[in-house]
Amino acid sequence: MTGVLVANPAERLGRHLKLVPGAATRQEEIKAMTRAQLAAFLAAATAAEAQGEERRLYPFFPLLARAGLRLGEGFALQWPDLDFTGREIRVARAFSDGRLDPPKSGHGRTVDMSRQLEAVLQHLLTERKAETLRRGWREMPTWVFCTTTGTMLSKGNVRQHQAHRGHLRQVASDGEQGRGGPPR
Predict the structure, then answer these.
(1) Alpha-carbon distance 1 to 3, whole Å?
(2) Which of 5, 42, 75, 112 has its CA 20 to 30 A from that of 103?
(3) What's this model's pTM, rounded to 2 decimal places?
């Protein structure tokens, strides 16, 4: 032997010393909402008290929930990516760290669009066309989810409504326990 190691002796040290969370812990951290939680969350997002930007963000949430898109993929969605006739969504790019890149998998994919999501996105398209006329924009913004100035929505835009999001999270949690309903 020449003294060359063929494997890293510290490779599993983090797991052995419990410095790295186990698979069960990681899975618990990314646990999806139950149907009841999701229904309560979406109901709160469209409640009468939701106004302006909060209501404007609503279509983004069913997209993530119904189509299984990651945040950055939702931010980067463009109108040509939506096929209402075939009820499909082409996930071709993601917005992360200030850049547009291919999705995490390295290549695009096509996902189904439920009838419920189709209705939400068709309504958004109608609203966006009306907004384009109302604001005097030369053309409709490319981004499906955009700000009131027509630029791409981002994590920062969503975080501006942190208090409301916290309230929605509480409503979703209440929905799981059978106490859901309109926001208090």
Answers:
(1) 6
(2) 42
(3) 0.69
Length of the chain as a residue count: 184
| Phi and psi at residue 150, to the nearest 5° | 90, 5
Within-domain flag for 17? no
d(CA 108, CA 99): 16
pLDDT digits (tens, 9 = 90+) for 46-78: 665 556 666 778 898 889 888 989 889 999 999
> 26 near 153, Cβ under 8 Å?
no
Whether 15 is covered by a domain: the verdict is no
182 is a domain residue = no
How far is residue 169 CA from its own chain's centroid? 14
Domain count, the chain: 1
